[in-house]
Amino acid sequence: MTNWCKRLMILLLSMGLVLCASLPVFAKSTDNGTVVYVSDNEATFDPGGATYSRIICLKNSDNANGSLLCTFDQLKNVSVNMDDGSVVSKQVYPIYKSTDNGDSWQLIANVYDKEYGLLRTSQPCLYELPQKVGDMPSGTILLAGNIFDDSPHTQSRIVIYKSTDGGHTWSFLSEVDNGGPCVYDPGTESTTTTVWEPFLGISEDGELVCYYSDERQKENGVLQAVSFKTSSDGIHWSSLSNVAAITNKSDRPGMITVTALPNGKYMAVYEVVNRPSIGKNNAVVYCKFSDDGVTWDAESLGTRIALADGRGIGSSPYVKWINAGGPNGMVIISAKWGTDVEDNISGGQNFYVNYNLGEGSWERLPMPVTYDYNDLAGGYFSGFSQSFDVSPDNKTLYQATNVENFNNSKMIDGVSYNLNDVRVGTLPLDGTIYEAEKAVISNARAENAVDASNGQEVRYINEKDSSVDFQNIKVDKTGNYKILVRYSNGEEAEASHMITVNNMQIGTVNYPMTTNWDRYLWSEFTCYLNKGMNSIKFTKNIGFAELDCIQVSETESDFSIINGNSGKYLEITSALTNEGAVAGQWGITNHWCQKWAFEKAENGFYRIKNKNSELYLAIENDSAEDGAKAVQSSYSNHDSQLWSLEETENGYYHIVNKNSGKYLEIADNLEEDGAVAGQWGPTGYRCQEWTIIKEGIH
C-alpha cells in the first residue's frame, strides 16, 4: 500500500487553405480526456469519490477487438440483487465500455461479492487472457480484486471473476488467497496481516500468475512482501512465493505490476513504502527482472527508476511494455507523482519511458490526462493507481486516471473535498515531439519546469512580437497533419496563439484554462505540411499561455545513438548527404545528421536511416574485415545494411552487422569529436556499446 496519510481548447483552427486529404481518425487528446464517471455527491462515503482506475483494450476477442473496458474503486454503495432474492447495499466493481476509442462510455455491468457476504470491493485489476488457460479460451476477461468486510474489519480476500462475453456478464472464478483485516499500518512495529492489490499475468510456461502484496511474513522480519501464486486453470492455486521480501522491517514493497518483455524477460515494478525514509515516505518506485515471471531474487530490493539526471517517481506504479516507439518497443510506467534526486515529491504529469528494455536511464513522455498529483490543490488521491493500455495497432495510448473535479465537492467530517472523476485520455504513439525550448524564440524565454517534457518550457510569450518558431519540422510526405500542443494557461480566461505554417498565417489555436501555471493540457490543430522541412510559428494573440512542446502526428520515431565510451553522438560527418559519406561521432549539435530512424527488416534486423540524408548505415564495400568503416548508402538488400541490437548491461546495446557479425564501434576507443565509426569483433571495450534516446532530440 502507498502512503495513505498523503491526503493529499479544443482548438478551432480557422484554416486559410483547403484540406486536400482526409486525416486518420484519432481518439480524444484534448479537454483532459473524456469523463467515464462522475462521483456521486450524495452517495459517496469517501473523500476520493473514485480511485484506482483500470483500463484494457481488447485484442484477443475477435470482433470486439479495439473495445475498451474501464473499472475503478467506486467509493459508494449500490443496491444489488443477491442470489437468494434479497437486495443489499454494497460496493461494486463497475464495468464501463467504449467502442469509439474512449470518446463515450456506457456502464455495462456491476461485479460484486456473492460468495462471502462481504460489502467492500477495492483494488481491481482487469486482464484479457492472451492464450488459453485451463478451460478458459483466449479472450476471456478476468477481474481480480480485494474484497473485505465493513467495520469491524476482520478479513481481506483476493478473488477473481471471469467474463466470456466482453465484460457484460460475470461469474466467480476462484479465491487466490486471504488475509487479515484491511488496515493500513506501515510502521516498523506493525502487526497487520492484510493481502492487497492483485495483478494478473501469464508466466513463461503459460500459467496464470496473480501477484499481490502480503503482510503475513512479519515473523521473518518482512514488513510487507510482493508475492505471487500460479495456476494452470485459474481455479487451483500454488503455494506462495515472493518477488521481493526485504528483511529489514522498514522497506515495504507493494502495488506490484509486471510486464513481459520481447527479450523473454519479465519486469516487475512496485513502490517501496518508507522510502526514501520512514519519516519522508514517498513510496519510491523500484523494478527488477525475471527470466520466466516466477523466478525472482526476492532478497534484492531492485533498482530505483530514474531519469539520467536522477529524478524518480513514486506511489502506485503501473508498467507495460508496448510494441511501439522504438526498435525494441517501449516500457512505460505511470505513477502518482515524480520525485527529485532526494525523492521529495516533485511534479507528476509525465509517464516514464525506456527504449532499452527497461535497463538504464529513463525518459519522460507527457501524459494525456493530468491531475492534482500532490493533493494540494483540493484533490484527494487524484491520480492514485492509474493505468494505461494501447490500441491493437499500437498507435494510440489510452490512460485512465482519477482527476479532481472542482465543481463537485463534498463535506466529509467537516472538511470540503473535491471528489474525483474517472477520465480516459489518449496520446498518439506514432508522432514526433518537438520541444519549444529548441525552437527559435523571439521576445520570450525558455526556463526550467519540473513537469515539462525535456524539463523546460517557453514562458513570457506576452508581447505582439513574441513568438516560438519550430523551424525544423520534418515529414516524409506531403499532406495534412494533426498537431498537438502541450501548454499551460493559469489565467482566468481562454488564451490563443496565432499559427503561421511555412510563412502562411492559417488561424489560431485556443488554450482553455489550466488549474495553474504548473498544470498542462493539450490543444490541437490541423495543418498542411510539405515533404521535407517545414516551420510552424506560434505568435501571441489573446491572453497568455506557456508552451512546452508540440507533437506532429503520423511521423516515424527518431533517435539519437550515443556511444557508451565517449558519450558522443553517432552522425554522418559534416552533415554530408552523398553516398559513401563516413559515420563518426560528435558532441550534440541538434542537427538532423545526428538523428536516426530504425526501420524493421526481416528476422529481427533493422535498417538504420540517417534523417538528414535519408541514406542507410552500412559497412563500406560490404566488408567483413575488422576496421572497415561505417558509411551511408542508398537502400539495398545487402546484409551489410542490416543491423541487430544485442543487449549488454545498464541500458546499452551492441549494434551488430548482419553481414560480418561484427560490432559497430568508434575506432581506437577514441573520445574526440570526429572519430570515425567502423566495425570490429567483440573486444569488451565500451566504444562498442551504444544507447538510444528520444526525449529532447528535437
Task: Report on the architecture of this protein.
There is one protein chain. This protein has 698 residues and is mostly beta strands. It has three domains: 39-428, Neuraminidase (6 Propeller), CATH 2.120.10; 432-552, Sandwich (Jelly Rolls); 560-693, Trefoil (Acidic Fibroblast Growth Factor, subunit A) (Trefoil). It has no helices and 51 strands. It has a five-stranded antiparallel beta sheet, with no helix packed on it. A four-stranded antiparallel beta sheet has the order 1-28-27-26, with no helix packed on it. A four-stranded antiparallel beta sheet has the order 2-3-6-7, with no helix packed on it. Strand 31 and strand 32 form a beta hairpin. The two termini are 39 Å apart. Residues 1-26 have low confidence and may be disordered.
Rg value? 26 Å
> What is the CATH C level class of the largest domain, in words?
Mainly Beta
> β content, as a range?
35-45%
Which architecture of the largest domain does the CATH hierarchy give at level 2?
6 Propeller
Total helical segments = 0
Strand order of the largest sheet: 30-33-38-35-36
Can you tell me the number of structural domains? 3
Helical content class: under 10%
**Overall pLDDT level:** 93
Structural class call reads mainly beta
Q: How many strands, which pairing sense, and closed or not: the largest β-sheet?
A: 5 strands, antiparallel
Oligomer: single chain
- Terminal Cα span: 39 Å
What would the CATH topology of the largest domain be? Neuraminidase
**Bulk shape:** globular
Unreliable residue stretches: 1-26
Count the strands?
A: 51
